[in-house]
Write a structure and sequence with these properties.
By secondary structure, the chain is mostly beta strands. It contains no helices and nine strands. Strands 2-1-3 form a three-stranded antiparallel sheet, with no helix packed on it. It starts with 32 loop residues before the first strand and ends in a 19-residue tail after the last strand.
Length: 215
């Protein structure tokens, strides 16, 4: 009837000859709200809207865009390390796809723990880029540490006591008489088989020749 409220129903509710138009410049009662989508990314700007039965050109049915001038900024977009809110959730750089991995350096020796990574756009306190520490609770153990004779892998190379700085010199004892040759020696952490702790043998190929032997 004339003067009736107009609805989005493809019917001339108010008998004025027009369908689904509003009254006095107002939209039909049940007209949805559309939001300006200048960058055409499918997400509109909450602050600029219009009510209409059908979507106007350049408008979207949501107002969730936080930057309507750049289509790369929208809900669901990948977050990047750029100090900007790419995905419009109110946070900056969280879960950025180009974040770098840093590793916990609990013992502050400059080498991090491979098993304690953290993805971040900037280096957090207590973290380093390196991940080669084999014991992050002991500052004397790291890839840069010197190896000692102590059954510990100080330099994190998977070997124990190799090339230890406190190795002792032992002398080849080829005749197993307990006396080593002054001409053949090597450094070891412990006395190995075939060696002696002295170099007093004058003939290391004859078991009858050694200090205090019967002449």
């Amino acid at each position: 009837f004339p003067g009736a409220l107009e609805y989005c129903n493809e019917t001339d509710d108010d008998c004025d000859g027009s369908i689904d138009e509003g009254q006095n410049d107002a939209a039909p009662v049940n007209a949805p709200t559309w939001y300006l989508d200048s960058d055409e990314d499918g997400f509109g700007l909450l602050l600029v809207s219009i009510r209409s039965c059908d979507a106007p050109q350049g408008y979207s049915n949501n107002g969730e865009d936080c930057n309507d001038s750049d289509p790369s900024f929208k809900p669901g977009a990948n977050e990047l390390c750029n100090d900007l809110d790419d995905n419009c959730n109110g946070d900056i750089d969280e879960g950025a796809i180009d974040a770098e991995l840093f590793y916990s350096d609990a013992d502050a020796d400059g080498f991090g723990d491979l098993n304690a990574p953290l993805a971040s756009c900037t280096q957090p306190a207590g973290y380093v880029e390196d991940s080669t520490d084999c014991n992050d609770l002991n500052g004397t153990i790291s890839p840069a540490a010197e190896e000692y004779c102590n059954n510990i892998d100080e330099d994190c190379d998977g070997e124990i006591d190799e090339l230890a700085v406190d190795r002792l010199e032992f002398y080849a004892d080829q005749d197993d008489d307990g006396f080593g040759s002054p001409d053949l020696s090597e450094l070891f952490c412990q006395l190995p088989a075939g060696y002696a702790s002295n170099n007093l043998d004058c003939d290391d190929e004859n078991t009858d020749h050694y200090p205090n032997a019967a002449e």
